[in-house]
Amino acid sequence: MTDLSNKAAVSSEANLVLDEMHRIFSAFRETNDERLAEIEQRFSSDVVTEEKLARIDRALENTQRRMDRILVEKSRPPLSGETRAEPLQREHKAAFRSYMRTGEAAGLKAIEEKALSAGSGPDGGFLIPVPAEREILRRMANISPMRSVASVREISTATYKKAFCTTGPGAGWVGETEARPQTSSQIIADLSFPAMEIYAMPSATQTMLDDAAVDVEQWIAEEIDVVLAEQEGQAFINGNGTNRPMGLLAYPKSTLAAWSWGRTAYLPTGVAGNFPAANPSDLLVDLVYALRAGYRQNARFLMNRRTQAAIRKFKATTGEYLWQPPASLGSAATLMNFPVVEAEDMPDIGADSFSIACGDFQRAYLIVDRVGIRVLRDPYSAKPYVLFYTTKRVGGGIQDFDAVKFLKFGLT
Length: 412
What we know:
The structure is a single chain. Helix 1 packs antiparallel against helix 2 (47-74), helix 3 packs antiparallel against helix 4 (106-114) and helix 5 packs across helix 8 (216-238). The radius of gyration is 26 Å and the shape is flat. The protein is 40% helix and 23% strand. The chain has helices spanning 3-42, 47-74, 87-102, 106-114, 130-143, 145-149, 206-210, 216-238, 282-289, 293-296, 305-311, 361-364; strands spanning 126-127, 151-155, 159-167, 187-194, 196-200, 203-205, 253-255, 264-268, 300-303, 323-324, 334-335, 338-342, 353-359, 365-370, 374-382, 385-398, 404-409. By secondary structure, the protein is an alpha+beta fold. It starts with a helix and ends with a strand. The protein folds into 3 domains: 3-74; 87-136 and 158-166 and 187-237 and 366-395, Major capsid protein gp5 fold; 253-365 and 401-409, 2-Layer Sandwich (hypothetical protein PF0899 fold), CATH 3.30.2320.
């Protein structure tokens, strides 16, 4: 089967899964409406109806996972399709394959000397070819929730510093001939985003490496993209800044009224570990409008699947469900017409948990990638397997504390 036939088959399967998701959600709406009618008539719902709704909800979750898997597979073109690479890139690619298969490093050393490479890590290793590095980062963006919505910068140093104004110069209106009072001085500070090292260590047999049909760049990309994306995703949400990025939830928090720069603001539900019983969806509206208008234009909700399942039953006063499945391939589910980003590292709903975030994450969170992914071949530590110690440097943190708000499931 050709690559074109493969892509057509994947697209066909994705369309079928999308249609199935809409059918299941239609059944979910009907069953939940039936449950609500039973509660209204008898002050309780039938056990059979509750079990049916739970089964449909699980089917909807499984269909969403199938859709996510298909879309990730669809976004993985082979790395061997470089037909117009620069001569140095082609030379680098051939030398890298030789190193991966045999351990011969002379070609890579010559190329790095020719390119004046100065990014060697403390444990050594060699840079993978640029096209493969870009493809790995693109794949990781499809897997890592935060990487897909945050701002991403490439750096060549250990730390990225971004300047911002804590207080701006004075300004005002004056007449044409009136005196201009002296303005106050502008105060500038900076935010620092150090790049931390993350690693993976895939292994292979020498027999596999000797197989000329195996694309070693494709193999290393498939081995490391998921595991690195999962590690990154956890750090971008919960990282404490020690040997890893500073996560979205790690910063000090305050109520909306007490908010100041350097903190993130939250809106309490008024109930420990739950939504209020009356009009729970009102809090979602309040959360959205806690953002300034400029941030709402590109706002998204961030939560995990279990939290999403809890709000899937919310309805507007007109009877329409606030949560809607994806309208087309590659799009996200929506909540009140705002896209929903699923991040499994967001906490479940519990006492004083910050389980839902809403904001413009492109302006709120910055990810920095230090250029270069390095591979160190180790044929000795786990014989007869060959280990490939693969490292990349990445950092992250909040760059605009006003661009994101949280819903806290607590009293205050």
